[in-house]
Write a structure and sequence with these properties.
The longest helix has 35 residues. It is built from twelve helices and no strands. With 275 residues, the chain is an all-alpha fold. It is globular and about 70 Å long. The chain has one domain. The model has no long low-confidence stretch (mean pLDDT 89).
Length: 275
């Protein structure tokens, strides 16, 4: 491979990392956009190792942003278990952890059984175009919702509904963050609570997927020849996810989800017509 070809490859993977990083935390489907840009760049997908690799970079960015919430939940949840005298704040955080576990079960079970089959069967641009339109409709339906539930007001039913919503997001083009936020707001969560629940829920799912798919990454035929492009994509994804999530937190506070709905409609139609 000559220098110009190598440089072009690095640029392509830099852009793919940027796309993953920007689209992971906002409700427009990172998996769908990776499929679209791979089609545009002529980057062939051999399994899901690249998606898993950059998804782990997004996970690290989420961990950094929500580190204080994670430390508080672990500390208070552990204290609730070991202490005889139970404090109300500890009980609420312990329950919040339980609800995260409950909400993880549907996508965990369904993902292990059917995740690869869904990814292989539905990873084409036409389907992504249609599923982006579905995402647009879902975001439009919740655009004016203003819930009242805080962290301590959630129920098992809420966790199950959000978990089922996340399971739907196994379909490429259905935004994971969008699906979980839609589910969270439909059950009456406040924007801040919905956002926190959605991204703390992302952590066990992403971590579990990464661990289960380590063999997939190791047997990727491109891992040696594309190691540097993968690393560039990883670093780019981490940085882009961090700033995109910070930006999206501000968007959620202002209740401007309708603009993501408009975006998904435009991109979905363009993809269906031209790709």
């Amino acid at each position: 491979m000559d220098f110009s070809a190598e440089l072009l490859t690095l640029i392509k993977y830099f852009i793919l990392g940027l796309v993953q990083g920007i689209t992971e935390p906002i409700p427009i489907s990172s998996s769908g956009h990776l499929i679209i840009f791979r089609e545009l760049f002529g980057v062939k997908a051999n399994g899901l190792s690249f998606e898993i690799f950059v998804n782990f970079a997004s996970l690290l960015a989420v961990l950094v942003i929500y580190r204080n919430d994670i430390i508080r939940l672990v500390t208070n949840g552990t204290r609730y278990i070991v202490k005889k005298e139970k404090e109300e704040s500890d009980r609420k955080d312990f329950q919040f952890i339980i609800y995260l576990i409950i909400a993880t079960i549907p996508v965990g079970v369904f993902g292990v059984l059917f995740g690869d089959a869904i990814g292989d069967a539905l990873s084409n641009t036409k389907i992504v175009g249609f599923t982006l339109l579905i995402t647009a409709v879902a975001l439009w339906l919740i655009r004016n919702l203003r819930g009242r539930k805080n962290d301590g007001d959630l129920t098992t039913k809420d966790a199950i509904i959000v978990g089922l919503a996340q399971m739907v997001a196994l379909t490429p083009g259905i935004s994971r963050s969008g699906a979980t936020i839609v589910g969270s707001m439909l059950v009456g969560m406040k924007q801040e609570t919905a956002l926190r629940f959605a991204f703390l829920l992302y952590i066990p799912v992403s971590l579990g997927t990464g661990i289960l798919e380590i063999p997939e990454i190791l047997k990727d035929p491109n891992i040696n020849s594309l190691l540097i492009p993968y690393i560039i994509a990883f670093i780019t994804t981490f940085i882009a996810t961090y700033f995109a999530l910070k930006w999206f937190m501000d968007i959620m506070a202002k209740g401007n989800l309708k603009y993501f709905s408009y975006y998904c409609v435009i991109v979905g139609i363009l993809v269906i017509l031209f790709l």
